[in-house]
Design brief:
Blueprint (H helix, E strand, L loop, with lengths): L2 H8 L4 E5 L5 H13 L3 E4 L6 H10 L14 E5 L19 E4 L11 E4 L6 H11 L6 H14 L8 H14 L3 H7 L6 H13 L1 E5 L2 E8 L3 H10 L4 E8 L2 E8 L1 H6 L3 H12 L2 E4 L3 E7 L2 H28 L1 H4 L2
Parallel strand pairs: 1-2, 1-3, 3-4, 4-5, 7-8
Antiparallel strand pairs: 6-7, 8-9, 9-11, 10-11
Amino acid sequence: MRTNEILGRLRGSKKIILTHGNSDMDAIGSAYALKSCFEPADIWAPAGVDRVARMVADKLEIPILETADLNDYDLVVVVDTSSPDLLQTEGLTVPPNSLIIDHHAPTGKWDDMDFNCDESRTSCCEIVYDLITSAGIEIDRKTGLALLGGMLTDSGHFQFADSRMLRTFADILDKCQIPMDEALLLVRAPVSMSERTAAMKAIGRSKFEKVADMIVAVSYGSSFEAASCRALMASGADVVFVGSQRDEEFRVSARATQEMVRRGIKLDAIMGQLSKETTTDGGGHGGAAGMTGIGDAEAMVHMCMMKTMDEFRNIKKRMEAERDSPDSTGE
């Protein structure tokens, strides 16, 4: 969809901006930037927001609806959400021709919508900022902070950033006169005892396998999957899957080091393939992805481990072939 067509739909109409379940800062930052620059608009997180996004929303006084009726609006916009299933709200149907703005690998589940996706971008906030600048709109300081917060969290505090994201980040710092330390402190949340305990339990329950110098670890718990992933990676794993079970529903969070991504690990592809095989919903990025649905969390993380082991073996074969080729020795 062309930029001028997107801007035409955003201008003037009464909009509601939806975000995925347990919305992160990238989703909330994108939604708030659209709201502030293309009024009138409301933000609705139908399945809640995560801890960091809630903290930032409170700091910046970002209004987020707890309930809404889509029939009250001229346009529905969905941000940072690769599939309608990720809205995680029973009975919620996004009307046809809604506007979808995303940066994840397309799942094909938004085919009847006006779909604007750039999976090469590290964050959805970058795409939204591009739209705002294309419209000739100057952002205020609060909007700049919200966008920076989304870029920081989705890039793993620059660990997964590329040069394009860094240039966009610096541009917002300059235009809004935001010091770097203020941007960093915005999304820095104190680690609760519950989060620390969940991470320690995840390490205790973990299992791992290795191929050559590559380690994949899996674990499960009831909450704080992202913190558990970080703990397992800090302990030495290269790829991590952590699952949680809530009644019949499961959720799996996955992380990989940048070195593994450079070698060829693509967590979004692994999760996407598994989701098709198990009729669940999965996707994300090469270094960070997730999967949700009906099923057993332990079984799902085991399947994730097996597929990753297959990828490790392929990487090992390729590396051995490259090492043994005549070109690698200069002959």
